[in-house]
Write a structure and sequence with these properties.
Helix content is about 35%, strand content about 20%. By secondary structure, it is of the alpha/beta class. Helix 21 links the parallel strand 22 and strand 23. The radius of gyration is 30 Å and the shape is globular.
C-alpha cells in the first residue's frame, strides 16, 4: 500500500484535474484522520464530484460521533442536488433514533411569492409530511404533497415530498416546522419582496459622505476590533463618512448589546434585520440606504489604519471609468501580500500599522485588476447606478457576488483597481470545508455560464502578475525594519535512537548531490537497489542535476507534494523508514551538516558513513545497511 500511495500521489501531482485519482488516493489504507484530510482537500478542488462526496460521508460516519456527522449533513443538505448523495445522507440520519425524524429544506422565491423545497420522514417515507408555517400575522398548515423529482431520483416515492406554498402578502419572518416542532433547514425565512433599487440621486456622489457598510452576524471579538479601528482612525481621514453596521439578526447577545450601545452614543448608524437575510440581500439593502453616496463594503473581521479611506477614495476618483478599488491585505485573493492568492496570517496591530505605513510611504500607483475582492471594496455610486446591485436570485446563498458585479461592470466599460498604497488587515477563512466549497462551486458554475471568457482572462492576469512589482517594492520598504537574522548554531538535538525496521519501502536521500562523486555514488546505489526484490525506492526531495539519470533507474522518485498533507505525513504514507547519506566527508564545526538537517526536519533516523562523524548526533553507521548496499558504498 505504501507503493500504491506513492504512485497515486505522483499521478495526482502530474494530473491535478483528475478527481478519480484523488478518490483512489484516499482509498489507500492510512490513519482515518489523514483519510478525512485528503478527502476534505480533494473536495476543495472537486466539490461536486459524486464519488468524493460519497466517500467523504462514509469516512465521517465511520470515524465521528453521529451527532457531529448529523450537524455536517444539516449544514450542507440545502446544497445537495445529487440523488445518490441525498439518499446516503438521509440514510445516515435515519440510522440513529435521535435524528430519525422528518427533515426538509425550504426556500423563498421572492419573484413568485412562494415557498418551495422538499420534506420527507425517513421513518415513514410513504406518508407526505405535514408542516406548519407561522409568521407574526398568520399560521398556515400544509402538506408536502407535490411530486419531488429530486426525492424520486433518490429512491423515495414519486407522489409527494415537494413543498409549494403561495403566501399571503405579509413580509417578515416565517418559521416552517414539522408537527414534532423541529424546523426545516432554511427556517426562519426572511419573507421580503423582490429588491427594488432606488432611483439615482441628482446629487454628485463625489461631494457626499461615504457609507462604510459593515455586515455583522457572528464573531463578537473580531467585529468589535474592526469597529474600534474604524472609530479610532475616523479623524485621520478627511473624507466624511458614516459607519453603518448591518446587523443580519446576529445570534450573539454580547455583540448585539455592544453595537446597540455604540448606536445610542451616535458613533455608528445601526440597521438590525429581524430575520437573517444573508450577505447579498443584507448588503443590497445597505447600499440602497443613501442613494447619493459611494459605499465601502468592509468585512467585520478586518482592521483599518490611518487615512485608509482617503487613499481608497483618491484611487477611485483617478478616472471617470473606475468602478471599484480593493486595497492590499494579508488575505484577499489577488491583493494578498506577501503572496498573491494566499490566505496569509492576520498581522498583529503593530505589524499591521507598520505594513500600512510602508504602503503609504511607497506612493505606488494603483494597478488595474480583473475583479475586486469584497473584504474591503470601494464602489462608486455612479458605477452602482449603471451596473445595478447584487444578484439576489442565482447567487442567493452568497460567495462570488462581487466577482459577478465586477464582471458585469467590466462588460459595460468600467475598470477595477488595486490600491497598493494602503493595507487593510483581514482575518478571513484560511481554509474552508465541503460546505462552503460546494456553494462556491455552484455559484462559480453560474459565473462560467455568464462570462465564458472570464476564467481565461483571470489566468492570463495571474500569469502576468502586474502586482508583483508593487509587492516587491513593499517588501523592500519593510526589509530595513527587520532585525538581522542570527546565525544559527549547530543543533545538538539527538536523532531518533530507535533502529527502524529494515529495509522499509523507501529511503529519503539526505545529500545535496552537488559534487560529481556523490552523484555517481547515488546513481550506483539506485541501480543496485533496482535489482533487488522487492526494490527499495529512493525519494528525492531536492533539485539536482542528477535527477534525470536517477529517475531513469526506476528506483528513484521525486517526493510528491500531496495537497492537505505535510512532508512528514507523506513520507510516512510512502513507507519511508530512514534518511540516508553517502557523503563520507566530515563537516565543519560551525556548520550543521545537510544530512542532519534533513533527518531532523523530517524526524527520520539518519544512516551515514562513519567517517562523517555524525554518530555523535545519533546517526547510525552504514554497516547497519550492509545487506542492501553495494560493496563500494560500504567502503
Amino acid at each position: 500500500m505504501a507503493e500504491a500511495f506513492l504512485r497515486l500521489a505522483e499521478a495526482c501531482e502530474r494530473l491535478p484535474n483528475r478527481a478519480d485519482l484523488k478518490a483512489l488516493l484516499t482509498r489507500c489504507p492510512q490513519p482515518p484522520a489523514l483519510t478525512e484530510t485528503l478527502l476534505r482537500t480533494a473536495l476543495q478542488r472537486f466539490p461536486a464530484d459524486p464519488t468524493l462526496r460519497r466517500l467523504y460521508w462514509s469516512t465521517c460516519r465511520a470515524n465521528h460521533p453521529h451527532a457531529e456527522v448529523a450537524a455536517q449533513i444539516h449544514a450542507q443538505l440545502a446544497d445537495i442536488r445529487d440523488p445518490a448523495e441525498l439518499r446516503q445522507v438521509l440514510e445516515i440520519l435515519a440510522a440513529d433514533p435521535k435524528t430519525a425524524r422528518p427533515v426538509g429544506v425550504i426556500h423563498h422565491d421572492a419573484a413568485r411569492g412562494i415557498v418551495t423545497g422538499w420534506a420527507i420522514d425517513p421513518k415513514n417515507p410513504e406518508r407526505p409530511p405535514r408542516l406548519q408555517m407561522t409568521t407574526n400575522e398568520f399560521r398556515l398548515e400544509c402538506v408536502a404533497d407535490n411530486p419531488s423529482p429530486l426525492l424520486a431520483q433518490a429512491g423515495f416515492p414519486d407522489t409527494h415530498g415537494a413543498i409549494l406554498v403561495r403566501l399571503p402578502q405579509a413580509p417578515g419572518g416565517l418559521r416552517a416546522s414539522f408537527h414534532d416542532g423541529s424546523e426545516l433547514i432554511g427556517s426562519p425565512l426572511a419573507i421580503e419582496p423582490p429588491f427594488s433599487p432606488p432611483a439615482p440621486s441628482p446629487k454628485d456622489p463625489a461631494t457626499q459622505p461615504v457609507d462604510v457598510l459593515v455586515p455583522v452576524f457572528k464573531g463578537t471579538e473580531a467585529t468589535l476590533e474592526c469597529l474600534d479601528s474604524l472609530l479610532r482612525h475616523r479623524r485621520d481621514n478627511r473624507t466624511q463618512h458614516q459607519i453603518v453596521v448591518l446587523d443580519d439578526a446576529s445570534p450573539e447577545p454580547r455583540l448585539v448589546q455592544a453595537i446597540e450601545r455604540l448606536a445610542r452614543q451616535g458613533r455608528i448608524q445601526l440597521v438590525r434585520r429581524p430575520v437573517n437575510l444573508g450577505f447579498i440581500r443584507n448588503m443590497n439593502r445597505g447600499m440602497a440606504l443613501h442613494p447619493e453616496c459611494d459605499v465601502v463594503w468592509l468585512n467585520a473581521d478586518t482592521r483599518v489604519h490611518g487615512d485608509w479611506l482617503d487613499r481608497l477614495r483618491a484611487a477611485a476618483y483617478q478616472a471617470e471609468d473606475i468602478a471599484s478599488v480593493t486595497p492590499f491585505t494579508n488575505n484577499g485573493e489577488l491583493m494578498s501580500f506577501p503572496e498573491s492568492r494566499i490566505a496569509n496570517p492576520m498581522p498583529s496591530p503593530q505589524a499591521h500599522a507598520r505594513l500600512d505605513r510602508a504602503a503609504r510611504q511607497s506612493g505606488l500607483a494603483p494597478v488595474e485588476l480583473e475583479v475586486g475582492c469584497g473584504f474591503c471594496f470601494y464602489i462608486k455610486r455612479r458605477a452602482l447606478d449603471a451596473v445595478g446591485y447584487l444578484d439576489e436570485e442565482a447567487l442567493q446563498r452568497g460567495y462570488g457576488e462581487e466577482t459577478d458585479w465586477c464582471l458585469r461592470a467590466r462588460r459595460q466599460g468600467w475598470r477595477h483597481l488595486g490600491a497598493t498604497n494602503l493595507f487593510v488587515a483581514h482575518a478571513g477563512g484560511h481554509s474552508f470545508g465541503p460546505e462552503k466549497a460546494l456553494r462556491v462551486y455552484q455559484n462559480n458554475s453560474v459565473l462560467r455560464r455568464r462570462y465564458p471568457d472570464a476564467e481565461r482572462r483571470f489566468d492570463v492576469f495571474v500569469a502576468r502578475d502586474p502586482l508583483r512589482p508593487a509587492r516587491e517594492a513593499l517588501q523592500q520598504l519593510l526589509a530595513p525594519q527587520k532585525r538581522p537574522a542570527k546565525t544559527p548554531s549547530p543543533a545538538r538535538a539527538p536523532l531518533a535512537s530507535t533502529r527502524p525496521l529494515l529495509p522499509g519501502r523507501s529511503w529519503l536521500i539526505a545529500d545535496r548531490l552537488e559534487q560529481p562523486e556523490i552523484g555517481e555514488r547515488w546513481l550506483r546505489l539506485a541501480r543496485h537497489l533496482a535489482r533487488q526484490q522487492p526494490a527499495i525506492t529512493l525519494l528525492l526531495a531536492d533539485d539536482t542535476p542528477w535527477e534525470v539519470q536517477l529517475l531513469a533507474t526506476d528506483c528513484v522518485s521525486r517526493l510528491p507534494h500531496v495537497e492537505g498533507l505535510d512532508t512528514r505525513q507523506t513520507l510516512e504514507l510512502c513507507g519511508t523508514t530512514l534518511a540516508l547519506s553517502l557523503d563520507a566527508s566530515s563537516p565543519g564545526a560551525t556548520q550543521l551538516p545537510h544530512p542532519l538537517q534533513i533527518a531532523q526536519r523530517h524526524r527520520l533516523p539518519l544512516f551515514a558513513p562513519e567517517t562523517a562523524g555524525l554518530d555523535r548526533f545519533g546517526a547510525f553507521g552504514l554497516h547497519e545497511l550492509r545487506p542492501y548496499l553495494p560493496e563500494e558504498s560500504q567502503a
